[in-house]
């Protein structure tokens, strides 16, 4: 078998593994939703002084019943280990892709999708080593599965060398950092979206108070989600700033101007301004919290559009997708 | 202390105000907090309850109020949002500076909408009045916000850490414990710990103090005389933030100056020929308002050779792999030197950069008219239209002998041609292994004498007559290098030279602001990194002895989100000799 084909096969395998991880995480979320309800009724059943808030039952429900709390999260454990497995497969697929093409494996849309998904998974898994963020699992693996399948079906191009304009160490730096930032923004987007949903449920938005959204009660508080999302966004924003500066330095050499309002440049600028607005919103009275989280949602929508829409719809200098 | 610290209107910042969310809640439940009443739409977003009537402002008051608003966080936020939205149309509609031809085409296709869009600057968004207005206002707001902040930060840099507050329990991170060490020992150890190991570069700025015994007051229980430590770190965080914002201003200014001083010229040259660095020698030349033609250093340059490489494997067949132009540069003093220009590797001479922007073939074409006179002879650049270098070009032959029709030739140059069964020809590889020139012939008045500028790569055939054969089909002439072929209708002959020269499109650019633009960008990046990741923290310690044991209490406050604050507080407490930490309920923030 050709190395390039092996790489494609590994990516398919990774996508499948992530789909399994997603199901495992989703089962975990569903169970935790039920557990919450049980915990509530247990709390009520116990003799509680009047006025005690059932909502303050500690997160890891004490081994109150005969079922200990730990085995209940076996599904999440499966999710984490399959996530590691999928990430390993994906890494191998990326490396082989680079070997087959004889260059850095991030020079077109397909490869960008692979590496971006990889980074998102790494951010999630590394974060999970430091604190329990398994609640993110279903969403991160879900998005990544979607990315990989779309990438394989719509963006896939043969592994080959690159044109002269791309033969530069800036390909490694500028594009590499852009992809890393995108992977980070993916995870922080999930956090901010969950923040908005949980916030909506807490404040009684009719749609979100349905039983189907019970699992939201097990999410961290909106405040915790917001500060986690912020930390990632801060890193992502600095990387995005570097992406733009690096891109300008490269454009100065490759295209003879450092900035020319090419569609890709326009959208990178828009993304940068939206995330800058997000950082300001966080520190502006009346805008922190919920409203600021919307900036993350809008910013991430712009990131996705910059990647897909701008490459495929507009005709700019960044038409390196290889898709005709 | 908030009295001397400048804060933009509307910023939510517990750190510089020195008040915590709990304080604000206290204040809100108490009497209406008479904070800065700034007139209409108070900074806090709601008019302070119970304010009877806003005093009459007068025009100076109005001005001051407008200024306060313009430099407020909320307005900065609005302007940033506007800026993002306003930038979008420039990616949707064709833009004149980038692609004037596309604008003309768009106007042709959408005459009514196009006219309105044009009127509102949608074809040149980034120089439009509305886009400029947004970023200029943002810049004014930025300067208005940053200058006072810089001044107050410069003062704050010399400030001592704020006094140890009376109550610790309202701070986001606290820790406490007991020890047998004396309070003096405790403060000494804590101060040494907080200052860190490097004497000249202390981590924290530390003050130690003493407090008299105090009776119970309100919620604060009675306390014997105590020793205190007040410490602060992270002045660089604010410095970084200011550096970032100032660098943005510098960036915009240097970009603007660059636009005024830069120049850019394009020249197409063929192998063996050259051009001189003079405004007249360029095919197109643009420059900023402050450009001085005298500033062009009059070097000259010759294209010695041009080589290109293309992939031949089946996966990436005919994709470009390398372009190299070998040139000789002759300086005004007569010295000459050889260089290479490649994509991504411009050549720098005399402060200007020369880029390899395009390349193609410029077949050597000679037209002899019906009377046998040479009416045209020269290299004609044919512009590549696809990856296989199917290249299109025109030859305009106005200088025929007296009384004859002028001749126009339109055609394709195919570097490696194959002729299909239906007689059409196409190029199958970009390198000239089997070149073929395919021409159609027109005659009539080319309209060159009417003074209307014409595109040299276009032939307007509307008023010309095409040569056709007996069946009414267009005549196409096929020429291989070295061929000479009769033109139809007895117009004369056309010949193609033995070798097909290559041409390169060079772009020469000089922008004296580049170094500044780069420096400010990097400063902005450094400042931003500092302002986001350097922790800004205050730590307070109070310690006293009662009933023979020494109590130690620590509190911490951070600017913005700071995951490491409780760790810092705990480490501070752990630095106390012989400490026994009090048990505390788990931190509620670690859920999830
Ligand atoms: C070109 C427009 C601007 C851009 C791109 C921009 C960008 C940024 C960025 C990226 C940060 C994040 C750094 C941090 O959070 O520490 C920031 C912080 C900040 N900006 Fe701006 N800014 C702009 C204009 C302004 C203006 C006009 C003001 C004043 C009203 C302002 C006031 C602030 C303040 C006070 C902070 C610190 C917020 C905090 O406490 O973290 N900025 N800005």
Can you characterise this structure?
Chain A is mainly α and 324 residues long. Chain A has helices spanning 3-45, 74-101, 109-130, 137-155, 169-202, 222-254, 263-282, 290-307, 309-312. The longest helix of chain A is centred in the N-terminal third of the chain and has 43 residues, at 3-45. The relative contact order of chain A is 0.11. Chain B has helices spanning 14-17, 21-29, 58-70, 73-87, 89-92, 100-109, 111-119, 129-156, 183-195, 235-261, 514-533, 565-574, and strands at residues 173-179, 205-211, 226-233, 263-270, 274-276, 284-287, 300-310, 320-330, 336-342, 347-349, 352-361, 364-369, 374-379, 383-384, 391-397, 406-414, 416-419, 425-429, 436-444, 465-466, 476-479, 484-487, 492-496, 502-510, 537-546, 549-558, 580-581. Chain A: This is C-type cytochrome biogenesis protein CcsB. Chain A: It is a multi-pass membrane protein. Chain A: The chain crosses the membrane at residues 12-30, 82-100, 112-129, 136-157, 169-191, 232-251, 266-281, 293-314. Chain A: It is found in: Membrane.
Distance between the termini of chain A: 27 Å
Q: Please, how many helices of chain B?
A: 12
| Basic shape of chain A | globular
Shape of chain B: elongated
Largest sheet of chain A: none
Most residues in contact, chain pair and counts: A-B, 59 and 63 residues
Q: Could you tell me how far the N terminus lies from the C terminus of chain B, measured between alpha carbons in angstroms?
A: 38 Å
> Can you give the helix content of chain B as a percent range?
25-40%
Task: Give the topology.
The complex is a heterodimer of chains A (324) and B (592).
Chain A lengths: L2 H43 L28 H28 L7 H22 L6 H19 L13 H34 L19 H33 L8 H20 L7 H18 L1 H4 L12
Helix pairs in contact in A: 1-2, 1-4, 2-3, 3-4, 3-5, 5-6, 5-8, 6-7, 7-8
Chain B lengths: L13 H4 L3 H9 L28 H13 L2 H15 L1 H4 L7 H10 L1 H9 L9 H28 L16 E7 L3 H13 L9 E7 L14 E8 L1 H27 L1 E8 L3 E3 L7 E4 L12 E11 L9 E11 L5 E7 L4 E3 L2 E10 L2 E6 L4 E6 L3 E2 L6 E7 L8 E9 L1 E4 L5 E5 L6 E9 L20 E2 L9 E4 L4 E4 L4 E5 L5 E9 L3 H20 L3 E10 L2 E10 L6 H10 L5 E2 L11
Antiparallel strand pairs in B: 1-26, 1-27, 2-3, 3-25, 4-6, 4-24, 5-7, 7-8, 8-9, 10-11, 11-24, 12-13, 12-23, 14-15, 15-16, 16-19, 17-18, 19-20, 19-21, 22-23, 25-26
Helix pairs in contact in B: 4-8, 6-7, 8-10, 10-11
The complex binds protoporphyrin IX containing FE (HEM).
């Amino acid at each position: 078998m050709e190395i390039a084909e092996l790489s494609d096969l590994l990516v398919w395998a990774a996508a499948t593994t992530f789909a399994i991880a997603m199901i495992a995480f989703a089962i975990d979320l569903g169970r935790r939703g039920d557990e919450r309800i049980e915990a509530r009724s247990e709390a009520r059943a116990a003799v509680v002084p009047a006025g005690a808030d059932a909502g303050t039952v500690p997160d890891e429900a004490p081994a109150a019943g005969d079922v200990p709390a730990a085995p209940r999260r076996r599904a999440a454990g499966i999710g984490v280990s399959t996530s590691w497995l999928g990430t390993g497969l994906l890494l191998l697929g990326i490396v082989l892709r680079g070997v087959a093409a004889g260059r850095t494996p991030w020079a077109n849309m397909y490869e960008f999708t692979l590496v971006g998904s990889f980074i998102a998974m790494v951010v999630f898994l590394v974060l999970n080593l430091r604190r329990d963020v398994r609640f993110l699992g279903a969403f991160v693996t879900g998005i990544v599965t979607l990315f990989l399948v779309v990438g394989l079906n719509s963006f896939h191009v043969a592994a080959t060398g690159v044109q002269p304009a791309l033969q530069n160490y800036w390909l490694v730096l500028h594009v590499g950092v852009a992809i890393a930032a995108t992977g980070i923004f993916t995870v922080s987007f999930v956090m901010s979206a969950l923040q908005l949903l949980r916030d909506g449920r807490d404040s009684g938005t009719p749609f979100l108070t349905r039983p189907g959204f019970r699992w939201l009660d097990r999410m961290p508080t909106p405040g915790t989600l917001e500060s986690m999302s912020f930390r990632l966004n801060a890193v992502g924003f600095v990387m995005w700033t570097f992406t733009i500066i690096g891109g300008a330095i490269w454009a100065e050499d490759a295209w003879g101007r450092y900035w020319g309002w090419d569609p890709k440049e326009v959208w990178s600028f828009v993304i940068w301004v939206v995330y800058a607005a997000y950082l300001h919103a966080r520190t502006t009275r009346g805008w922190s919290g919920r409203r600021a989280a919307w900036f993350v949602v809008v910013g991430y929508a712009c990131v996705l559009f910059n990647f897909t829409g701008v490459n495929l719809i507009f005709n700019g200098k960044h038409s390196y997708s290889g898709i005709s | 202390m908030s009295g001397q610290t400048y804060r933009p209107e509307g910023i939510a910042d517990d750190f510089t105000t020195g008040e915590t969310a709990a304080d604000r809640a206290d204040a809100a439940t108490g009497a209406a907090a008479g904070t800065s009443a700034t007139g209409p739409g108070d900074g806090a977003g709601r008019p302070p309850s119970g304010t009877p009537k806003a005093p009459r402002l007068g025009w100076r008051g109005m001005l001051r109020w407008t200024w306060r608003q313009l430099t407020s966080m909320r307005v900065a936020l609005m302007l940033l949002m506007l800026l993002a939205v306003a930038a979008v149309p420039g990616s949707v509609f064709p833009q004149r500076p980038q692609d004037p031809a596309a604008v003309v085409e768009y106007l042709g296709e959408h005459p009514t909408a196009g006219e309105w869009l044009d009127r509102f600057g949608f074809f040149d968004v980034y120089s439009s009045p509305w886009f400029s207005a947004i970023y200029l206002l943002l810049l004014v707001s930025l300067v208005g916000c940053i200058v006072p902040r810089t001044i107050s930060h410069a003062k704050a840099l010399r400030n001592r850490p704020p006094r140890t507050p009376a109550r610790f329990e309202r701070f986001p991170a606290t820790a406490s414990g007991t020890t047998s060490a004396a309070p003096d020992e405790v403060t000494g150890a804590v101060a040494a710990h907080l200052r860190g190991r490097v004497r000249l570069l202390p981590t924290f700025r530390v003050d130690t103090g003493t407090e008299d015994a105090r009776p119970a007051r309100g919620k604060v229980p009675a306390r014997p005389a105590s020793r205190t430590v007040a410490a602060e770190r992270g002045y660089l965080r604010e410095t970084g933030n200011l550096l970032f914002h100032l660098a943005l201003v510098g960036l915009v200014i240097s970009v603007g100056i660059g636009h005024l001083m830069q120049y850019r010229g394009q020249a197409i040259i063929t192998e063996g020929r050259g051009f001189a660095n003079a405004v007249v020698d360029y095919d197109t030349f643009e420059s900023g308002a402050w450009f001085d033609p005298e500033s062009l250093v009059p070097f000259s340059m010759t294209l010695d050779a041009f080589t290109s490489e293309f992939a031949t494997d089946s996966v990436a067949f005919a994709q470009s792999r390398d372009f190299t132009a070998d040139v000789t540069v002759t300086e005004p003093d007569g010295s000459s030197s050889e260089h290479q220009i490649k994509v991504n590797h411009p050549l720098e001479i005399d402060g200007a950069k020369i880029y390899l922007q395009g390349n193609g073939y410029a077949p050597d074409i000679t037209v002899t008219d019906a009377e046998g006179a040479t009416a045209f002879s020269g290299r004609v650049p044919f512009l590549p239209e696809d990856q296989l270098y199917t290249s299109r070009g025109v030859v305009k032959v106005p200088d025929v002998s007296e009384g004859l029709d002028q001749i126009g030739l339109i055609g394709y140059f195919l570097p490696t041609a194959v002729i299909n069964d239906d007689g059409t020809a196409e190029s199958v590889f970009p390198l000239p292994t089997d070149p073929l020139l395919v021409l159609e012939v027109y005659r009539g008045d080319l309209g060159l004498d009417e003074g209307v500028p014409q595109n040299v790569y276009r032939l307007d055939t509307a008023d010309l007559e095409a040569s056709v054969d007996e069946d009414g089909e267009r005549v196409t002439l096929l020429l291989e290098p070295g061929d000479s072929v009769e033109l139809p209708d007895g117009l004369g002959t056309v010949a193609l030279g033995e070798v097909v020269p290559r041409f390169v499109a060079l772009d020469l650019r000089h922008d004296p602001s580049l170094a500044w633009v780069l420096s400010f960008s990097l400063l902005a990046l450094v400042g931003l990194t500092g302002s986001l990741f350097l922790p800004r923290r205050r730590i307070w310690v109070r310690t006293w002895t009662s009933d023979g044991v020494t109590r130690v209490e620590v509190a911490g406050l951070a600017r913005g989100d700071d995951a490491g604050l409780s760790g810092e507080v705990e480490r501070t407490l752990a630095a106390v000799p012989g400490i026994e930490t009090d048990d505390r309920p788990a931190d509620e923030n670690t859920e999830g």
